[in-house]
Amino acid sequence: MIGAVSWINTRVARINADLVALYRDLHAHPELSFAEHRTAGIAARRARALGFEVTEGVGGTGVVARLVNGPGPTVLLRADMDGLPVREQTGLAYASTAFDPECGEPVMHACGHDMHTVCLLGALDALVQARARWSGTVVAVFQPAEEVGRGAQAMVDDGLFERFGKPEIVLAQHVLPIAVGTVATHPGPFLAANDSLRITLHGRGGHGSRPETTVDPIVMAAAAVLRLQTIVSREVAATDRAVVTIGSLHAGAKENIIADEAVLGVSVRTYSTEVRDRVVEAVRRIVCAEAAASGADRAPTIELLMRLPVTVNDPVALDKTRGALSNALGAERVLNIAAFPASEDVGILAEAAGAPLSFWFFGGADPAKVAAAQENGTVERDIPMNHSPYFAPLAEPAIDCGVTALTAAAFAWLDSNP
Ligand code: ZN
Ligand code: ZN
């Protein structure tokens, strides 16, 4: 294994100059969820040029690239491809000025999925060049629409595992503003489940001068928003964790008109099904009770916009993957972190395949800046996080680390030829 590792490292360095150029190109041309046509086309073309058997249009804009290299295990490597409706403010030479052609929103790779796509292509290149050293099947999944939580499910529904086989392991990584050159992971429940709800509180509109003839949805919403804050503090045990965020509240148009309705956008993050069910039920109970308390004619409408499961790293599989990451990067660069409140849909792939998942973060931030911010207690202020308009991973070293990590992890799960 050690021989293979040094081989990976020297080979990866050579592949990377081309990948950095590709990264800048993808970064300058982000596409929203399920609109990743250009990105998918590039991924497909490159994977085909490497000798992979490529299928496009899986689950919308998804791409599956498969390489059968003798008998042995099937290893699934997954990268997501979509950008976000964010106006980029990084000031980078290759910053995005793109707008979505359908909705007209500015688009930015504010979560680093451009880097994931590039790292997966780099890993495929390294694996092809090393094909005499391993045996098995590599299935690379370029997944659409992670940001709306529907891409993984769309690919599963389109027969991903019936058409391309079930893997022994699902491997995936995500860039994060931790020190570049490091990776970080966590066994067991790692990322939170996410339930996104749209709740419409139905009032009865009227003239602002005669509130007694109306049911004011703004007062109803205000009471509901405050009461919803008590779910985590009063209904979740100290040993459990949850987040309830009301990220949007829209109602009314003018000061002398009482609106008909108010719409809340609610995001719930939890780490177990029991807590998830309890918190979502509490949200429902509270908004219904507040509507009744206001004298509303009907109960609120509650829509589940997105539901992502907890992302769980199988502990036994993660041990094996971690070993490979430690060998390739150095054990001191493989960090343990606590469970993280962001969410992912990669767990849907692992669950549908009945395979264990190994998921890790890899760093994109300047280590000196991270250390200084940690010392000053200003990490949140000074280090732009994913989804920020200022999110700007250090391209070259981050790609280097991401390609090395993914390649090394894949090697660990394929059979190695002597
Ligand atoms: Zn994201
Ligand atoms: Zn992301």
Could you characterize the architecture of this molecule?
This protein is of the alpha+beta class and 418 residues long. It contains 13 helices and 17 strands. It has helices at 2-28, 37-49, 113-129, 151-157, 160-164, 217-228, 230-235, 273-294, 315-329, 346-353, 367-376, 379-382, 395-413; strands at residues 53-58, 62-69, 74-80, 134-143, 169-179, 183-185, 188-191, 193-202, 206-207, 242-251, 257-258, 261-270, 301-308, 311-313, 334-336, 357-365, 415-416. The strands form 4 sheets. Strands 1, 2, 3, 4, 5, 6, 15, 16 and 17 form a 9-stranded mixed sheet that branches. A 4-stranded antiparallel sheet has the order 10-12-8-13, with helices on one face. A hairpin with a 3-residue loop joins strand 1 (53-58) and strand 2 (62-69). Helix 1 (2-28) packs across helix 13 and helix 4 runs parallel beside helix 10 (346-353). It is elongated. It starts with a helix and ends with a strand.
